[in-house]
Amino acid sequence: MDKLGGGQIVVEKPAHQLEEVEKLKKLFYDPKEPSSFGGVKRLSEASGLKKDPVRKFLSGEDPYSLHFPVRYKFQRRKAIAYGLNELWQSDLVDLQKFSRFNRGYRYILTIIDVLSRYLRAFPFRDKKASTIAKVFRKVFKEVRPKNIQTDKGSEYYSKTVRHLFKTHNIHHYSTKSEAKSAILERAHRPLQNKMYRVFTHRNSYKYLDILKPLVDSYNHSVHRSHGFAPANVTEADEPLLYKSLYNINVPIRFRFAVNDVVRISKARKVFRKGYLPLWTEETFVVYIRYPTIPPTYALQDLSGKEIAGRFYAEELQKIDKSDNNLWAIEKIIRTKGRGTSRQLLVKWVGFDDSFNSWIKVEWLKT
Q1: DSSP secondary structure string, 19-30?
Q2: 83: helix, coil or strand?
Q3: Rg of the Cα atoms in the chain
Q4: pLDDT for 137-154, tens place per residue?
Q5: List of E strands, 131-248
Q6: In CATH, what is the architecture of 87-246?
Q7: 249-322 has which fold?
Q8: Is the pTM of this model over 0.70?
Q9: Residue-wise pLDDT tens digits, 191-215
Q10: CATH number of 1-60
């Protein structure tokens, strides 16, 4: 594994060096070359080689793979509900900056039914567990879901709220994906757009008197995703809504195979400068493929430990180290032995301490 900055210690692994690989290395690593540190197309044209071997070569070179462009917007798995009130999503909208115009109310708790898209919204003053539980108790007097999805906020995972969900036999869970309650987040946009237009119209930030009318307006408007007004949906409409929302007959096409070695995207909303490494230095192995729409993958680290969560293809990058025989060492922890028997305990760049290992001195290159 190459690493930016000269003088690092690396381990050399025996590998057959192909002539075309040496040619590609010169064209890629020599700053004088027009194709240096570029992409597949430019290196393919400069070398006269087809794109597939060039792509394979680049997938094993850290300066390329660690800075490979990351996709932030792509199709994700749909939250699928088979009936009304089978799955809800809930979130908090922070409106603290308007609290002095709204009798101290700082937040709005929103809930949406995933199948019908029926929206509920409740203002409240604080995020205490008792306050959140009180809002849900009010809702549960009318109707209860089988499942509820939220973010990992402590307001949802307090002992009081979790006990309330358990008492009503409601399965509560959160996703590990960066895209959380996507359906509810999309519903927030038209609601907040209208709210801010009212603010401008009235020259006031008061919303307590318009929140319910705006939510009612949303629920009585035809939703483009399924062609119904959420307030008018009944159980008899469930099969039609399900068919409209979920294209189940789409063929599954996997981009990765089991045992493929991959990096994970570091995509974060607050950290997106393209010149910084955008992918993990540590590599992982695909060990389960799920036929979801779109497909998702489960990963293990190189010691066989499962990585929490599932990953979309756009969050993974296949790499090939077969032609790259160097792996970087972060530091030498300690040594043992003398002469030809001398060994080093090393920590590898991009890997945690569980991967620390002993190597022979003669394997080193500087």
Answers
A1: HHHHHHHHHHH-
A2: coil
A3: 27
A4: 999 999 999 889 998 888
A5: 147-150, 171-174
A6: 2-Layer Sandwich (3.30)
A7: SH3 type barrels. (2.30.30)
A8: no
A9: 999 999 999 999 999 999 999 999 9
A10: 1.10.10
